């Protein structure tokens, strides 16, 4: 294993993003490999929270319009900070609600079913919350049987051709993940969008596992809408306010779920009972924005815009590539299944490995200071994050994995997941 340590140190010596590692609270003797579930706190995120708290303390209600970061415009301001990460105009991006609420909002607004065209195309590997929301919309429209699922050939990944084959005249809308939350596969968003539009279908993507890990060009690709959380790769903190993109061509459509913060800001405080929608994506807001849950993003996103998503992606691929090389060379005898696609253009920011004792392995790793996560039924996700993980982190994480397999430590933990996996 020593040769891998030498390689890791050589990579770290050439790492242009290593200067950002000290910006994060990592903890001693800890190899944090769960940034695709919850990113670590940065000092800038902490500072921006304290700044907003100070505005509350010193300005009181005037914090809505005064100070360096007026709360009244914070959703739009954070949208501007995220726009470059997804390739969109700032007026089309917003921080608002949660991911699930944003799915309800966008799907309910853009879904226009007819007697013959009413199905919504999803995939069988997507995160459950997305499916719950889509099914609820279909049920409310009286089309409960309209959920169409693209199947996986291997139980882990999806084939673009299989999804396109389902795009017929009965499909009104499509919602797919940009990166599959288990396998880490990147879908071909550009090709899927082009194919959907050729059939007159609205298409959107869940970017929860892609934003902050890979570049996007949503406007150029013509994507109709996208939703995402901000607490994974974006490091916005637990429950931080979600993100939303809607293509400008849809801004004229009035939203389905209406609330006073979606009103035109110039007339919002007229308190008229007739909804006067904002002219841009701002109308997708509903209630009063969660200021303290947005505050960390002001600092966290500053780091991304400074580092550049292209460099983040380059290092991320090197980190996961280094991990895959080690797994191939040193772990064949342990019965691991490497699920994540190998090609760089098909691999997101994490690696999924399968094992019949995955829950026990996950628990054993955590007992030794390696923090991955478990995904049912029998998988461990390992996510080295470009902004704060080093190549030596990856080396030590896999060295410890090898040790717990060799000495059988994982058997002491049983094979049942915790309440929060």
Automatic annotation (TrEMBL):
One of its GO terms (biological process) is L-kynurenine catabolic process. Belongs to the kynureninase family. GO terms for cellular component: cytoplasm. GO terms for molecular function: kynureninase activity; pyridoxal phosphate binding. Pyridoxal 5'-phosphate binds at residues 99-100, 127-130, 206, 209, 231, 260, 288. This is Kynureninase. Its EC number is 3.7.1.3. It catalyses: 3-hydroxy-L-kynurenine + H2O = 3-hydroxyanthranilate + L-alanine + H(+); L-kynurenine + H2O = anthranilate + L-alanine + H(+). Its cofactor is pyridoxal 5'-phosphate. Pathway: Amino-acid degradation; L-kynurenine degradation; L-alanine and anthranilate from L-kynurenine: step 1/1; Cofactor biosynthesis; NAD(+) biosynthesis; quinolinate from L-kynurenine: step 2/3. The modification N6-(pyridoxal phosphate)lysine is found at residue 232. The gene is kynU. Catalyzes the cleavage of L-kynurenine (L-Kyn) and L-3-hydroxykynurenine (L-3OHKyn) into anthranilic acid (AA) and 3-hydroxyanthranilic acid (3-OHAA), respectively. Keywords: Hydrolase, Pyridine nucleotide biosynthesis, Pyridoxal phosphate. It holds the Pfam family KYNU_C. Gene3D superfamilies: Aspartate Aminotransferase, domain 1, Type I PLP-dependent aspartate aminotransferase-like (Major domain).
């Amino acid at each position: 294993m020593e040769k891998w340590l030498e390689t890791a140190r050589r990579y770290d010596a050439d790492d242009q993003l290593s200067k950002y590692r000290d910006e994060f609270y990592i903890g001693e003797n800890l190899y944090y490999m769960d940034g695709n579930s919850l990113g670590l706190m940065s000092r800038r995120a902490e500072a921006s929270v304290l700044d907003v708290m100070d505005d509350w303390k010193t300005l009181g209600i005037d914090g809505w319009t005064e100070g360096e970061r007026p709360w009244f415009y914070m959703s739009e301001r954070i949208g501007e900070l995220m726009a470059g990460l997804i390739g969109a105009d700032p007026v089309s991006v917003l921080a608002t609600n949660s991911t699930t609420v944003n799915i309800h909002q966008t799907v309910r607004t853009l879904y226009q079913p007819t007697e013959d065209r009413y199905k919504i195309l999803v995939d069988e590997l997507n995160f459950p919350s997305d499916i719950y929301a889509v099914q609820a919309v279909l049920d409310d429209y009286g089309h409960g049987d309209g959920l169409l699922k693209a199947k996986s050939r291997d139980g882990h990944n999806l084939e673009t051709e299989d999804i396109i084959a389902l795009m017929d005249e009965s499909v009104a809308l499509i919602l797919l993940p940009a990166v599959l939350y288990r396998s880490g596969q990147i879908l071909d968003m550009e090709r899927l969008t082009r194919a959907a539009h050729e059939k007159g279908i609205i298409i959107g993507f869940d970017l929860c596992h892609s934003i902050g890990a890979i570049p996007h060009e949503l406007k150029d690709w013509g994507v109709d809408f996208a939703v995402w959380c901000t607490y994974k790769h974006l490091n916005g903190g637990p429950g931080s306010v979600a993100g939303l993109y809607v293509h400008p061509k849809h801004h004229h459509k009035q939203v389905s779920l209406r609330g006073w913060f979606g009103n035109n800001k110039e007339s919002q405080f007229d308190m008229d009972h007739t909804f006067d929608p904002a002219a841009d994506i701002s109308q997708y807001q509903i209630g009063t924005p969660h200021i303290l849950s947005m505050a960390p993003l002001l600092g966290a996103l500053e780091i991304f815009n400074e580092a550049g998503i292209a460099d983040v992606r380059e290092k991320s691929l090197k980190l996961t590539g280094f991990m895959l090389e080690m797994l191939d060379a040193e772990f064949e005898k342990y019965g691991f299944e490497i699920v994540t696609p190998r090609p760089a253009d098909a691999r997101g920011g994490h690696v999924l490995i399968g094992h019949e004792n995955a829950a026990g392995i996950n628990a054993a790793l955590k007992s030794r200071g390696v923090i991955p996560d478990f995904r049912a039924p029998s998988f461990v996700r390992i996510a080295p994050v470009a902004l704060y993980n080093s190549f030596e982190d990856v080396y030590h994480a896999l060295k410890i994995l090898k040790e717990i397999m060799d000495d059988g430590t994982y058997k002491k933990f049983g094979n049942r997941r915790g309440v929060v996996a």
